[in-house]
């Protein structure tokens, strides 16, 4: 039996500035229209994930970024496609974000982020990673020999993040 579902490798940038997180709202006519997301997009043939993220943020928001380490990877099954979304920490190096190829750009405080209506894979990222107990952005440490889920690491700590189990919408 052959599975003909579309499978996509997608990248997203997590930009944090002055305690605020940059979010973009998708255009109404696209897949997951008007849902909120961390900006990014699909890789083109022969393109590295980091190069794709720099290109996408330049096209969508007219900004240049320094792409840092992977914060997380989410595999998500939408009704019509499977997506592996790599979330990278990013820093804006030039420009100020403008809604060039998205519906809107907002900078909510970290504690406000979970209130947004996110696309599926982005929602999974928020639910399992954004913690606001002390007002800072932290990612849960997960994986084989990782400490219990209540132990967190700061976003600036080095280290990789394991792939998550498939999640469905």
Kindly provide the radius of gyration, computed on alpha-carbon positions and rounded to a whole number of angstroms: 15 Å
What about the largest sheet? 6 strands, mixed
Distance between the termini: 23 Å
Number of helices: 2
The succession of helices and strands, N to C, reads: EEEEEHEEEHEEE
Q: How large is the share of residues in beta strands?
A: 35-45%
User: What's the total number of strands?
Assistant: 11
Average pLDDT taken over every residue: 79
Q: What helical percentage do the residues reach?
A: 10-25%
Low-confidence stretches: 139-169
Could you say which structural class the secondary elements and strand pairing correspond to?
Answer: mainly beta
The shape is globular
Summarize this structure briefly.
This protein is mainly beta and 169 residues long.
Could you characterize what this model shows?
- By secondary structure, the chain is mainly beta.
- The chain contains two helices and eleven strands.
- Strands 1, 2, 5, 6, 7 and 11 form a six-stranded mixed β-sheet that branches. Strands 4-3-8 form a three-stranded antiparallel β-sheet, with no helix packed on it. Strands 9-10 form a two-stranded antiparallel sheet.
- The longest helix has 13 residues, at 49-61.
- The protein is globular, with a radius of gyration of 15 Å.
- The chain starts with 5 loop residues before the first strand and ends with a strand.
- The relative contact order is 0.22.
- Mean pLDDT is 79; it is low at 139-169.
């Amino acid at each position: 039996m052959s599975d003909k579902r579309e499978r996509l490798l997608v990248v997203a940038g997590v930009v944090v500035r002055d305690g605020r997180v940059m979010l973009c709202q998708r255009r109404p006519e696209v897949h997951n229209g008007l849902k909120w997301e961390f900006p990014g997009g699909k890789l083109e043939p022969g393109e590295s994930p980091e190069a794709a993220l720099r290109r996408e943020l330049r096209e969508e928001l007219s900004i240049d970024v320094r792409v840092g380490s992977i914060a997380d990877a989410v595999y998500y099954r939408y009704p019509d496609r499977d997506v592996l979304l790599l979330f990278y920490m990013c820093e804006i190096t030039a420009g100020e974000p403008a809604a060039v190829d998205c519906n809107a750009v907002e900078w909510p405080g970290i504690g406000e982020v979970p209130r947004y209506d996110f696309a599926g894979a982005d929602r999974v990222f928020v639910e399992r990673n954004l913690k606001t107990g002390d007002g800072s952005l932290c990612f849960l440490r997960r994986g084989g020999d990782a400490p219990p889920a209540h132990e967190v690491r700061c976003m600036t700590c080095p280290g990789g993040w394991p792939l998550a189990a498939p999640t469905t919408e």
